[in-house]
Amino acid sequence: MPLASPDKIVIEKSPAYFHNKDVPARIKQLNPKMKIILVVRDPVIRAISDYTQTLSKRKYKVLHPSFEKMALNWSNADATSTSIVNSHWGAIKVGIYHKHLKRWLQHFPPDQIHIVDGEKLITSPAAEVNQVEKFLGLKPVVKPEDFAIDPHKHFPCVRAKGELHCLGATKGRKHPKVQVKVLQKLADFFEPHNLEFFKMINRKFYWSPERNVSLIH
């Protein structure tokens, strides 16, 4: 972590921290009063986004397996069951939020962990940022007019000093169109895990197969 004066707040982020088994204990050792911000979204969409990001780094994209082939165990005879989902694939494992959060709660109390609704961060960014400001002990200053929607990527852009700052080329990529039956199998697989997560944080996010389909077209 960089050096900072008492009147400064240092924020460091990485998508790998949440599911890495060793990180919670190491962060607690660094600073047991550390405040943790966790951004979650529909795990089905998160898996598709993960796949899209990985695919973008491949030189020969046509040789890379489709999302459907990665997400499901097609050799599984019981194709009507959620057991056909490839739960060993990293893109799926990361979305089982309650298993990862359980490790964090072994090292940090709930009041030091703030959960951000990733879907609302897109549709109502100011409201979600205001909650983060309060969590960090800051006076909320961010307003809805500080954001605008990118007409191409449909993600929020930040308005600062009269200029819009939008996501770079490596963010907000268009997702591949995924078969509806595969989306449904994934939604069915994640449903009990989502409920366990909601129970753990005493909140509920409204994730559904219908929303999954609408987001990938």
From TrEMBL:
Annotated SUPFAM superfamilies: P-loop containing nucleoside triphosphate hydrolases
Domain of life where this protein originates: Eukaryota
Domain Sulfotransferase: 27-191
UniProt GO molecular function: [heparan sulfate]-glucosamine 3-sulfotransferase activity
Binding positions for 3'-phosphoadenylyl sulfate per the UniProt entry: R41, S49, K171, G172, R173, K174, H175
InterPro entries: NST/OST, P-loop_NTPase, Sulfotransferase_dom
Keyword Transferase: yes
Keywords: Disulfide bond, Glycoprotein, Transferase
UniProt name for this protein: Sulfotransferase domain-containing protein
Origin species: Diploscapter pachys
